[in-house]
Amino acid sequence: MANNKPMKKKSALGRGLGALLEDSPKKGKPEVLPAANPSASINEIPLDEIQVNPFQPRTHFDKTALEELSESIKVQGIIQPITVRKLADNEYQLISGERRFQASKLAGLVKVPAYIRTANDQQMLEMALIENIQRENLNALEIAHSYQRLLSECDLKQEQLGDRVGKNRTTVNNYLRLLKLPPDIQAGLRDQKISMGHARALINIEDIDTQLAIYKKTVDEELSVRKVEALVKSLNDGPEEKANTKEKDLDPVKKYELGKLQQKLASHFGAKVALKSDNKDKGEIKIPFRSTEDLNRILEILEII
After folding, report:
1. What is the rounded CA–CA span in Å between residue 116 and residue 131?
2. Residue 115's beta-bridge partner residues?
3. Which of 22, 98, 126, 293 is an active site residue?
4. What is the pTM of this model?
5. Mean pLDDT of successive 10-residue stretches along the chain, which has 305 residues
6. Where in the chain is the domain with CATH 3.90.1530.10?
7. Is-catalytic flag, 98?
8. 13-134 has which CATH code?
């Protein structure tokens, strides 16, 4: 007897890409994608008949990792076939598996095993983005751009996007906010000079120049996420929370710079140096001494005697 009870909707991560695409917004009447079938036939396709995926969200492939994968392919072959769509006779386009595709070229392969799927451009985009987000080690910025493309080019809402990638709305928002950072900071995140934790702290600074100053300090001094968060919190504290003194009113970045300089001076002179400055860049340096011999030692360092 047929079971007429409605089936519960599975979570995004537990569904095949075909199922994901069945309830995605469609323009016109796109071809229906079959659910992924591990037992489907595998075709050997010449590498020179395969085009790269124009919708590939990944912008950087680590050269060393590609070479390592290439060496593995030489020994073991391609364990997991790539996925392509057919454009015409002897002409295919990658849907997923560009790392395997590029590594196969490096390995000197002529043909690669591939599943052939049917997909229109919009489905290609969504499949490429979702497969990369779920299966590849994308950096935070690439994930953010992928999320943005799913929203803008696939006509998804944030809740739908969360369902597709198996993330809650807050997590999706945290990634999307990264795209509001200045280009220099985005580049630092992409190149792993800072982590997503650093970037999320920097997002909370409204002034771009201050953002860039703290970003530079973070990279130069290799500040931890916690230190950056504390620096940003100090910057964003209201004036009512600050003591009414010139030193407390200093810009947090300048205050941090003075602290580092004071440490260097103390190390150089072997004394507890006091360094003070105001917002007009006026101040004083005090170098204490404990005896005449100590004074002479400091004077020698200053090359005065």
Report:
1. 16
2. 83
3. 98
4. 0.49
5. 46 41 39 40 90 72 86 90 88 88 93 87 73 69 83 79 80 89 92 91 88 90 90 68 48 75 79 79 84 81 79
6. 13-134
7. yes
8. 3.90.1530.10
